[in-house]
Amino acid sequence: MMRTQDFPVIAARLRHAATTFERWSTHVQAVADNPPTSVPPMIVKGVPRPVEAEVIARADQGMTADLRVVRASVIQAVLHAERAVETADRVVNEYSGTRRPAGSSA
Q1: For the stretch 33-71, what's the b/e string if a residue is b when 16 or more beta carbons lie within 10 angstroms of its beta carbon?
Q2: Where is mean pLDDT largest: 11-15, 87-91, 94-98?
Q3: Where are any strands of DSSP class E within the chain?
Q4: Mean pLDDT computed over 54-66
Q5: Chain centroid offset of residue 24 CA
Q6: Confidence (pTM)
Q7: How far apart are CA 63 and CA 68, in angstroms?
């Protein structure tokens, strides 16, 4: 559907998604920074292994994979948006017959 929508409509949708993710980002970071809620103890040859236990608990809960997807998706979104801005700037400058002053933001 977005392939046929006008650019301002797509930009509004991008802005909404970015604003929504920004609101969620502190919560996602808190999840990433804090250990899972239930981490069974891991003891190897009588030695407690809390770090390994946390890593395994995160993986078992799917947290590691989910955080990886969130990070990869938002990085891709930023890179794509930055590329779109650069290309739009070139398109406007080359095809509209008007040039923005050097140093003006897109």
Answers
A1: eeebeebeebeeeeeeeeeebebbbbeeeeebeeeeebe
A2: 11-15
A3: 43-44, 47-48
A4: 88
A5: 10
A6: 0.73
A7: 8
